[in-house]
Amino acid sequence: MSLLPSRFIYLSADFRFYIENHTRNPDDLSRKQVRIYQLYSRTTGRHVQILGKKINANGDDGGKYALLVVETETFGSHIRIKGKESEHYICMNEKGKIVGRPDGRKQECVFVEEFLENNYTALVSAKYKGWYLGFNRKGRPKKGSRTTQRQQEVHFMKRQPKGVVDPLEEFRFTTVTKRTRRARRLKPNSKRN
């Protein structure tokens, strides 16, 4: 004997549909995550920096233009990258050119993070599928139409700004032996790391 009338039809929830709708049209009520880090370029060995309208990968570690504010939407890995000092967003125009814009609300300024097997991150344009953010060996931006995921020019590594220590790296394991235990008892007033 069924407790529910037969006219109720239960459909399985399609979570992918829900995510697509919320990432396509994010609202102001959704929770946004904001992080500050640097993007280390694999080809130049330097960091991505936003100098207003111009963007390159020749930034110094800890440089004020290399500090990036990364805004993440609630669902998926759609991000907007803004320079902390210049207040400009990294965007890709219809020709595939990388430019800096003061307003980052357009779809041209949204990138999708792709985590690669070699522990690097690639950033593909959300509007122009298959076009990646990339820089040549001199640090100049590459056109999105001339990039693929396999190229080293599009591989980046997220790094903390210089002087900021990751809490997991700060904690160090030390082995305690009879010798170190005895040394600690003899020096009770010394500073411990």
TrEMBL record:
Q: Name the predominant localization.
A: secreted
UniProt xrefs under PROSITE patterns:
HBGF_FGF
For this protein, the record's Gene3D superfamilies field holds:
2.80.10.50
Membrane-crossing residue ranges in chain numbering: none
Q: Which UniProt keywords apply?
A: Growth factor, Secreted, Signal
* Similarity-based family: Belongs to the heparin-binding growth factors family.
Name used for this protein in its record: Fibroblast growth factor
Source organism: Amphiprion percula
